[in-house]
Design goal:
The protein is α+β, with helices and mostly antiparallel strands and 719 residues long. It is 31% helix and 23% strand. The strands form 12 sheets. Strands 4, 5, 6, 7, 12, 22 and 23 form a 7-stranded mixed β-sheet that branches. Helix 10 packs parallel to helix 12 and helix 10 (331-340) packs across helix 13. Residues 603-663 form the PASTA domain.
Length: 719
């Protein structure tokens, strides 16, 4: 047993130990708090943790950024009518998850599927049965469902009608879209813009995919802006915080050189020929002979820009991105080169039919030939042998120099995406001779138009152009102007006039092969062409349908106002019409209308409206277009049910004539129409017109391309 002194020593040691532990804990806590305090001080002053700025992070946490969308610029025709413009469409979806409720407890999901299906079927292209099936999935319980193509591209008017039914669970997503009111209208030159989502920002913007829409995408697109503001956790804007905003810059507007009246007629005539012989491809361009301005341009296959129908087979813009052997239309430039270089005497004779060069034979299209004939007659007969002789007389060096002087084998620098430069086979004498009649050389349509301008414009070659100006959409000021641009003088004025005289022989001499291109009241200079089509393996396709037919024409011949060039590839000729006759069905009415429109002194021509009821839609449109009327076709049917004005009515040229087909009625774009025209439309279709104001239509309650039926109400404001 310990004595009292030992117990006192133990107590003393225990007190010392507790004191040491206490001091240690105090020091530990002191050091901890000192560390934390200094750390907090550093954070408070520097506002950084692990290289993260807390100030920025907090600001981002409570800052909401709203993208301010820029409006894409519009594209207009030569008269200021819209060809492409911005619009908004909506996509519809239905929420089925029954857990979705508002703050007031009301359902945010579809409650009555039968009623919902009935309303959707009334306003969307979907049956009630199909809509109900979509709203009632069997095997799963999705959060929401969509309605395929029937639930997309919904107009604002249709959206409002559906919203008026107050259907819980039905919501819409707005989408920027592009409106092409004319449908098939130089579609490959104008191009299309579709919505694309930026992967970095997540915003959707319209982006040009071809033609002018792609070439001038930056000009048209503009720049999106943004608006930043700070909000608390309850969504209220924080007081005293400055709002940052960068306004959107809308895209600029582009005015083209396309004349809508001529373009519409050209599309109609192209459709007519296409329906008759179903060619693999067609191309037609009308150009101002003095300036290079493209007045109308069309191709087949093409697509409807409003619906994108047919776009899958029509991505190539054949103006600039398609090369072909021009065939006998190349003889215009062979003759020009021979005359200009002093190697042509038209009264000299040669033996036609066959011509041997280095053991290789150049044949005429008529293998038996026409005996010994003059070079003048040989050109009118489109003799290959005549051209081969001229090439031999010039020599390959001179001939190739002129090929380049006419702008072949290099880009016209049109600005269109994917423009090609062409190519040539020119190593051997037979290849050099072949190019004189358009074989072994490949060109683009723009190159042909440019080269033809030298002949039509007395030796001065003009660059083809299709944009007249770019306008700032904010202040309506002109940013850039386009106009005639001289790109060369490959031949003299005397040569050009002589060549046009020989081109007239093609049309008017009894032995000429272009008589189908005669136009009453106008003198025509033309050259036809027939070229074999490549088989893709270094040779040529065989068979009756293996040719590319073409014509180059200038009217009036003595002082050309317009140049037109048309190609038709591999038509399925039936024997009832020749290729020349078919091309003339496009050439003659289009160039005649252009000449009539360009004559400012010409008095207004009035014509009797013919009867086209019960005729095919294609024939009816062609007949009306040839009379000079502006045809508005209602519906997609193949025959005409009604027309307005009626048969025998006297109507001025360029006035609207309405043709109602037997099915598929859809609303046309009536913005800019007179009240009289709108009333005729309503009378013909049975629409009930409710109008306000006077003048010209500036709104329509039934959207463009929307299906219509007798009894529907059309509300229009006129200003």
């Amino acid at each position: 047993m310990k004595d009292s002194s030992d117990r006192s020593a133990d107590k003393l040691n225990a007190r010392k130990s507790r004191k040491i532990v206490g001091i240690s804990l105090f020091l530990a806590f002191f050091l901890l708090f000192a560390f934390l305090g200094s750390r907090l001080l550093v954070i408070a002053v520097g506002k950084n943790v692990k290289n993260v700025n807390l100030n920025d992070r907090a600001e981002k946490l409570y800052t909401q950024t709203q993208t301010l969308k820029a409006k894409r610029g519009s594209i207009y025709d030569a008269n200021g009518n819209p060809i492409a413009e911005d619009t908004s469409t909506y996509s519809l979806y239905a929420v089925l998850d029954k857990r979705q409720k508002g703050l007031n407890g009301k359902p945010l999901y579809v409650v009555n599927k039968e009623k919902t299906a009935k309303v959707l079927a009334k306003y969307l292209p979907i049956t009630e049965k199909r809509a109900l099936k979509t709203l009632s999935p069997k095997d799963k319980q999705p959060f929401q469902v969509e309605f395929g193509s029937a639930g997309t591209n919904i107009s604002l008017l249709t959206k409002k009608k559906i919203e008026a039914a107050k259907l819980p669970g039905i919501d819409f997503v707005q989408k920027q879209a592009r409106l092409y009111p004319n449908g098939v209208f130089s579609s490959n030159l104008i191009g299309v813009a579709v919505s694309e989502t930026n992967k970095k920002t997540g915003t959707a913007n319209l982006v040009g995919q071809m033609g002018i829409e792609k070439a001038f995408n930056k000009t048209l697109a503009g720049q999106n802006g943004f608006k930043n503001a700070q909000y608390d956790v309850y969504g209220y804007k924080l007081p005293g915080k400055r709002q940052k905003e960068k306004p959107a810059k809308n895209g600029h507007n582009i005015y083209t050189t396309i004349d809508s009246r001529i373009q519409t007629l050209l599309e109609s005539e192209m459709n007519s020929v296409q329906s008759q012989v179903h060619p693999a491809g067609m191309n037609a361009v009308l150009m101002d002979a003095k300036t290079g301005k493209i007045v109308a341009a069309s191709q087949r296959p093409t697509f409807n820009a409003a619906t994108l129908k047919g776009i899958g087979s029509a991505w190539t813009n054949t103006l600039s991105s398609d090369m072909y052997e021009p065939g006998s239309t190349m003889k215009v430039f062979t003759l020009s080169s021979a005359i200009n270089s002093g190697h042509y005497n038209g009264t000299d004779t040669y033996e036609s039919g066959r011509y041997s060069i280095d053991g290789k034979i150049v044949p005429d299209w008529n293998p038996g030939g026409w005996g010994y004939i003059t070079y003048n007659k040989g050109f009118a007969l489109s003799s290959n042998v005549a051209m081969a002789h001229l090439e031999q007389q010039m020599g390959p060096t001179t001939w190739k120099k002129y090929i380049k002087r006419f702008g072949f084998l290099k880009s016209t620098n049109s600005g269109l995406p994917g423009e090609l430069t062409g190519r040539i086979q020119f190593n051997y004498p037979i290849e050099q001779a072949d190019t004189s009649f358009g074989q072994g050389i490949e060109v683009t349509t723009l190159q042909m138009m440019q080269a033809l301008s030298a002949v039509s414009n007395n030796g001065t070659m003009m660059k083809p152009y299709f944009i007249s100006k770019i306008i700032n959409s904010a202040n309506n000021k002109t940013i850039k102007k386009y106009g005639k641009k001289v790109v060369g003088h490959p031949i003299s004025a005397a040569t050009a006039k002589a060549v046009r005289k020989h081109m007239q022989d093609v049309v008017y001499k009894p032995y000429g092969i272009g008589a189908d291109y005669k136009i009453k009241g106008y003198r025509v200079a033309a050259k036809t062409g027939t070229a074999q089509v490549s088989n893709g393996m270094g040779g040529y396709a065989s068979g009756d349908d293996s040719y590319l037919y073409s014509v180059a024409g200038m009217v009036p011949a003595n002082n050309p106002r317009y140049v037109m060039f048309i190609t038709m590839k591999q038509p399925k000729l039936t024997g009832t019409k020749t290729a020349t006759q078919l091309l003339a069905e496009i050439f003659k009415p289009v160039i005649t209308r252009a000449l009539q429109n360009s004559n400012a002194k010409q008095a207004t021509v009035k014509r009797q409206v013919p009867s086209v009821v019960y005729q095919t839609t294609t024939d009816a449109k062609r007949i009306m277009n040839e009379k000079g009327f502006d045809v508005v076709t209602i519906g997609s049917g193949d025959s005409i049910l009604k027309q307005s004005p009626g048969v025998g009515t006297t109507q001025a040229e360029q006035k609207r004539v309405f043709l109602l087909t037997n099915k598929g009625w859809k609303m046309p774009r009536i913005i800019g129409w007179s009240k009289d025209d709108v009333e005729k439309l309503c009378s013909l279709t049975g629409l009930k017109l409710e109008s306000t104001g006077s003048g010209y239509a500036d709104s329509q309650s039934i959207n463009f391309e929307k299906s219509i039926d007798t009894g529907d109400v059309l509300k229009v404001n006129f200003e």
